[in-house]
Amino acid sequence: xxxxxxxxxxxxxxxxxxxxxxxxxxxxxxxxxxxxxxxxxxxxxxxxxxxxxxxxxxxxxxxxxxxxxxxxxxxxxxxxxxxxxxxxxxxxxxxxxxxxxxxxxxxxxx
Amino acid sequence: xxxxxxxxxxxxxxxxxxxxxxxxxxxxxxxxxxxxxxxxxxxxxxxxxxxxxxxxxxxxxxxxxxxxxxxxxxxxxxxxxxxxxxxxxxxxxxxxxxxxxxxxxxxxxxxx
Lengths: 110, 112
What we know:
Chain A is an all-beta fold.
């Protein structure tokens, strides 16, 4: 059972379009992390957010942590084929265990 | 920083056989984690070591599974009497204290 629900499950867009993926939970997390995973590889950390309402930008990626620290979103502007991958959110409830969502598979078509 | 290394990358075994996977964490990292990921799912926590001490085991880790980190450096995960339901990607990650996790590229196990 995943504590974190991610939506949509799949997203296919054309290069240059924008996209948003969501991560929701009924639990409060002390921190929330976003990872990207490519086939046959392990997840790679993109960002960690810790403060309710926090917004972080990483080039064309914008991450937001909900005020109540239960939800988060990832927005990609002007998506490129290199953004293709599985985007995972993970919540930390203590200082060592992460609970992952099932992920959103993003495909950016050239 | 050579990253987290896992060996083997792929393992195909017959049901009932034992398998062992190895993880070499980033050298200065004192924490080591094992996760399991099945198709269409995110990674699920299996177990966690701080130095050589195994501090938590998930209920997912049946008595057929055992993990060790004997000298607080590399770790092994052994699965005895494998079942088809054990087929998955086994991911190792490491961190220093509460720093973010660095994942290896996993061992993909297929039980036939």
